[in-house]
Design a protein that fits this description.
The complex is a heterodimer of chains A (188) and B (771). With 188 residues, chain A is an alpha+beta fold. Chain A contains six helices and five strands. In chain A, strands 2-1-5-3-4 form a five-stranded mixed sheet, with helices on both faces. With 771 residues, chain B is an alpha+beta fold. Chain B has three domains: 175 residues, Aldehyde oxidase/xanthine dehydrogenase, molybdopterin binding domain (Aldehyde Oxidoreductase, domain 4, 2-Layer Sandwich); 192 residues, Aldehyde Oxidoreductase, domain 3; 190 residues, Aldehyde Oxidoreductase, domain 4 (2-Layer Sandwich). In chain B, helix 4 packs across helix 8. Classes of the chains: A alpha+beta (188), B alpha+beta (771).
Chain lengths: 188, 771
């Protein structure tokens, strides 16, 4: 088991520190220690991209990074993508383009797409397909995902205001309800 | 009350909400990471469970020694099959194949024998998943290794070792019945047979006959979310289970049956489902987690690794198909014979009935003989995978038809159109077709620009295929609608939302109530909170649960009309409802919108809440079709998909964007099945490629955009004409891609997957002169 290690990081703009075992992955630390369950585990061996996060500007599979390696790093997870008062253009585009079905791969795709569009908002279909080849989706056939990322690139070029459109459901709470009726489910 | 408006169905009717593509209600949670899936649960005192799996494909369990594991610090409970009460209560039998609790218990934790590599034998709950894994290594299982019966071929050999001593072959001519017990002890669990006309005479009438043999390999649904569940056994004897499943009530029945407790003592709470495709129609770990929780006094969470998903859950059948079709010179099919052998894996229950009852059903053929065999072997027990059993049969039939068209000198689409089944024609099952859109799909394919577009360049080919899908349904769905004072309504169902059914059900309610889709708030709740509802499978939810919700919504209108009558001091029958407005027939100035009246409910007698259920005969049939262009690299054998157009008769597309998504996604899975995917087994029966690196599913780089063409031939069984969309799209791609590869290379592909090596071999074998 070994002694727990104190790791200091910055996650989604906030200083975050945690204690972990040396054998725990960054994915385990995010999900099980910090409660950031938006980052998903699909394969735990770097082949599906469901656990994609941005660390110091680079995307990586958090299942293949040890938690202790996050020391001093700056990390963005799916929970840190949206601005306070709305959605990021990529999130908005995924909704408008119906680019998700079951939704389990969606956080990984959005995080990976953000890392691309932050640098290359003009990325074309070929570039997007190349960039996202490390993220598996089994529901959509990728068609609508690629279209959503193309659209998000356009939205991002038009400026941040587009991305701040709140109230995609006319201001009403939509949402999944699973687990929410359970008082003893921890919230991140 | 009179509800005025168009009561016809389908495309001819105009809709306000149905047919639009609003943003899904659960979308924001899913793009922000807030949605909670099977593994996204944590609670005080939570333990982590792990499962020990058999390294052998076939072995008798002599003994299991768990003492060292139990002694490891951090371990709180260890379980084996002996902890399942049902194992002590009854011997393993094979009745009611798909919902046999004793058989499921044996698959969840093996009792006397392990039947495939990966078969669960014991489980541990510990304070961390790592400690639980360490404990597994301390469990000592004494196995007596038995000869492996790996394939259907091995299993059907004379004197093949029997997987189950007590298994006897059944014979049926009805997909929904188990049939007669023949008393013959065998690895063949059952034979299903359909017959029409005189098969011998039919072939005598043929001018051209093609007979070929085909094989497909074991493939997995490939959902990205591994199985995950949590169980908490309370001091009151009730157990609560949080799980990612297609059917919460099915899990409730299974856990109750295996643990020998009342169904009402089990509460199943649905988590979001990260892909299922049929594979999550049953659970594996819920009863195990329940035992571990009962023994430890703590909640226990169990999450499979990807490797465990491959080894320990149900993929779909590897299959053998022999197909013979004869036609006269005009192209009229005179006879067809289809012989199917599907591997069930460790226990009976392959989808061979799905293949047998659909393979030839798109066509009107007077003389038919179909035989299907369900064969057990030492592989994972198969489970449903999107249109279970259909794609394998279509892979054979649609390639034979392609060859037949070539021999007849006919356009392959014309051959299909000449023989297309219409309403009233008898399917091989003996059942006449209802109103179907087979012809409309075929005509749309032929008229599509893709069909006639020039395909230039060498090593390229265009293939077509269609696929008949018999959608399920009729198991039963409940829905409750509560009207809120602000004019919104909550729609409560027990139908797990696998891919967008919250929105498709909400839209149907909105259509009836004359309000916006955004004003309907769909909720999927636990087994204590909604009426019994069958699982989300068979492409039935938008149809079945939609029908229940529509009927609930119509009841809401009736109740609200009574309130309006009170306000206007008239009789309820004097109140009419049109375009979202209640008005008085006697004094048309008296009118209230749905929202206005919703605000007056508390003053007129209290809340309006309506529950409804629907249980009727099933969705019905539909046709899917594909046109695909490929390029085959002559040096490597690699296939590139250049262009793909996929057609589906959906009856009525409630949410066209998500209907397109279903078509595109089913196509992706079909392409993966056609080109890359297969379980590689060692001779001893171990899976050699149990990771996404080696079990390679299509990525963004493997596919072009997929054009989805929605055909709408209204289904008379649904008020809006819905036919279901989930499964049909996976039926044609296997054959369509094979037909395209044939056009590109001149080589017929009789086996899947069409990997680069397989294509090079086929080209070599079939065209030695070219080389």
């Amino acid at each position: 088991m070994g002694e727990r290690v104190h790791v200091r990081t910055n996650i989604n703009g906030d200083a975050a520190d945690f204690l972990c075992e040396p054998r725990q992955s960054l994915l385990e630390a995010l999900r099980d220690i910090l409660g950031l369950t938006g980052t998903k585990e699909g394969c735990n061996d770097g082949n599906c991209g469901a656990c994609t996060v941005i660390m110091d500007g680079r995307i990586l599979d958090s299942c293949c990074v040890l938690a202790v390696e996050a020391e001093g790093k700056t990390i963005t997870t799916i929970e840190g993508i949206a601005p306070l008062d709305g959605l990021h253009p990529i999130q908005q585009a995924f909704l408008e383009e119906a680019a998700l079905q079951c939704g389990i791969c969606t956080p990984g795709f959005i995080v990976a797409a953000k890392a691309l569009l932050d640098r290359e908002p003009d990325a074309d279909e070929a570039r997007i397909r190349h960039w996202l080849a490390g993220n598996l989706c089994r529901c959509t056939g990728y068609d609508k995902i690629v279209r959503a990322v193309l659209k998000a690139g356009e939205m991002m070029k038009q400026g941040p205001a587009i991305g701040q459109r709140a109230g995609v459901l006319g201001g009403k709470a939509g949402g999944t309800e699973a687990g929410k009726s359970v008082e003893d489910v921890y919230m991140a | 009350m009179t509800i005025t408006g168009e009561r016809g169905v389908g495309a001819s009717r105009s809709y306000k909400v149905v047919g639009t593509s609003p943003i899904r209600h659960d979308g924001v949670d899913k793009v922000t990471g807030r949605a909670r899936y099977g593994a996204d649960i944590n609670m005080a005192g939570l333990l982590h469970g792990k499962i020990l799996r058999s390294p052998h494909a076939h072995a008798r369990i002599r003994s299991i020694d768990t003492s060292k594991a139990e002694a490891l610090p951090g371990v709180r409970a260890v379980a084996t099959a002996k902890d399942f009460p049902i194992v002590q209560m009854q011997e393993l039998d094979f009745g009611g194949a798909q919902r046999n609790s004793r058989m499921m218990a044996d698959n969840d934790l093996a009792y006397r024998k392990v039947l495939y590599q990966g078969h669960a034998v014991a489980a541990v709950a510990a304070t961390s998943p790592h400690i639980a894994e360490e404990a597994l290594e301390l469990i000592k299982v004494d196995y007596e290794i038995l000869p492996t019966v790996l394939t259907w071929k091995d299993a059907m050999k004379e004197n093949a070792p029997l997987l189950h001593e007590s298994l006897t072959k059944r014979f049926t001519m009805d997909r929904s019945s188990q049939g007669k017990d023949t008393g013959v002890r065998s690895n063949v669990a059952s034979q299903i047979q359909f017959k029409l006309g005189d098969i011998e005479q039919g072939f005598r009438e043929a001018d051209v006959t093609v007979e070929r043999e085909f094989t497909t390999q074991t493939v997995h649904q490939g959902y990205i979310e591994p199985f995950a569940c949590t169980a908490s056994w309370g001091p009151d004897g009730r157990v609560t289970i949080w799980t990612s499943t297609q059917g919460i009530f099915g899990i409730r029945e299974t856990v109750a049956g295996i643990m020998d407790i009342a169904e009402s003592a089990v509460k199943v709470v649905p988590m979001e489902v990260g892909g299922a495709f049929g594979g999550k129609g049953i659970g594996y770990m819920e009863p195990v987690a329940a035992v571990l929780s009962k023994k430890s006094g703590h909640p226990v969470k169990m999450v499979m690794s990807r490797k465990e998903v491959f080894l320990g859950t149900g993929p779909t059948s590897a299959a053998f198909m022999r197909c013979k079709i004869g036609a006269d010179k005009s192209g009229k099919i005179t006879a067809a014979k289809l012989h199917l052998v599907y591997e069930a894996g460790a226990y009976p229950g392959s989808p061979v009935g799905g293949g047998a009852s659909t393979g030839l059903s798109a066509y009107k053929i007077d003389n038919v003989l179909i035989d299907g065999y369900d064969v057990v072997c030492n592989k994972q027990k198969t489970q449903a995978y999107r249109a279970p059993g259909h794609p394998q049969a279509a892979f054979a039939v649609e390639q034979v038809l392609d060859e037949l068209a070539e021999k007849l000198g006919m356009d392959p689409m014309d051959l299909r159109l000449k023989n297309v089944a219409r309403q009233g024609d008898r399917a091989p099952t003996g059942v006449p077709h209802a109103r179907v859109g087979f012809k409309e799909v075929m005509e749309a394919m032929k008229a599509h620009p893709h069909y006639s577009a020039p395909l230039e360049g060498i090593n390229r080919g265009r293939g077509i295929a269609v696929g008949y899908r018999l959608n399920g349904g009729g198991s039963g769905s409940s829905a409750t609608i509560n009207v809120n004072a602000d004019g919104t309504v909550n729609v409560i169902t027990g139908s797990m939302d696998l891919s967008g059914t919250r929105v498709s059900i909400a839209m149907q309610v909105a259509e009836v109530l004359g309000i916006a889709a955004e004003d309907v708030l769909p909720q999927v709740v636990d087994t204590d909170s909604v009426g019994w509802t069958g699982g989300s499978g068979g492409s039935r939810i938008t149809f079945d649960t939609g029908r229940a919700a529509i009927s609930g919504a119509e009841d809401v209108l009736r109740k609200m009309a009574q309130r309006a009558a009170l306000l206007w001091d008239v009789q309820a029958e004097d109140v009419q409802f049109k375009d979202g407005v209640f008005f008085c027939a006697k004094n048309p100035k008296d009118k209230l919108s749905f929202k206005e009246l919703a605000g007056k409910l508390m003053a007129t007698g209290g809340p309006v809440t309506c529950s409804a259920m629907d249980k009727q005969g099933g969705v019905g049939a539909q046709l899917a079709g594909n046109i695909v262009d490929v390029k085959v690299d002559p040096e490597t054998g690699k296939v590139d998909i250049l262009r793909y157009t996929a057609f589906l008769d959906v009856g009525k597309a409630v949410h066209p964007a998500y209907v397109e998504g279903q078509i595109q996604g089913g196509t992706l899975q079909g392409i993966g099945w056609a080109l890359n995917e297969e379980y590689f087994f060692t001779p001893a029966g171990a899976m050699a490629n149990s990771s996404f690196l080696d079990y390679r599913m299509p990525t963004t780089l493997d596919l072009p955009m997929i054009e989805a063409v929605i055909i709408e031939v209204a289904n008379p069984r649904h008020p809006f004409g819905v036919r279901g969309v989930g499964e049909g799209p996976i039926v044609p791609p296997l054959a369509a891609v094979a037909n395209a590869v044939y056009r590109a290379t001149g080589a017929r592909m009789y086996g899947l997957p069409m990997s680069p090596g397989a294509i090079l071999e086929a080209v070599e074998e079939q065209q030695p002169k070219k080389r």
